[in-house]
Design goal:
Blueprint: H1 4-17, H2 27-46, H3 54-63, H4 68-78, H5 83-100, H6 105-118
Helix pairs in contact: 1-5, 2-5
């Protein structure tokens, strides 16, 4: 399994290959793209999106030997715009930004988790 920093670099290379870095990126716009994915997750939840059966989806497209456009069409019909897919989109955007900014995000996640374990109940807040 890849760590988050390795995954961020792979995601970033894909985003570059799709033209998202043909021009210099604005940090504010990049951050708002992350926020937009989270807003889409909220909307998916508001619309009552179901948690798709990913294993069933993968088994079915494999059994049909779907690849390329056929696979993408099935993905759009069964997975796209669901809460888990939108959360995944937010993670992808965040990891892409980390690679662009050359942040070793795995180290920072590890540090954050260690710090959080030392914090008080609810971090001293009401909720």
């Amino acid at each position: 399994m890849k760590d988050l920093t390795e995954l961020s670099k792979e995601i970033h290379e894909t985003m570059k290959s799709k033209g998202f870095y043909d021009k210099p990126r604005c940090l504010g716009k990049s951050l708002m793209l992350c926020v937009t994915e989270l807003a889409e997750a909220m909307q998916a939840d508001r619309e009552g999106s179901v948690n798709p059966e990913v294993e069933e989806f993968e088994a079915w497209v494999t059994s049909q030997e779907l690849k390329g456009p056929g696979w993408a069409l099935c993905y759009e019909q069964e997975i796209k715009d669901t809460l888990p897919q939108e959360l995944a989109g937010a993670i992808v955007r965040i990891l892409d930004l980390c690679a662009y900014l050359e942040i070793d995000i795995q180290k920072f996640v590890d540090l954050e988790m260690k710090y959080n374990k030392l914090r008080p109940h609810k971090h001293g807040k009401k909720y």
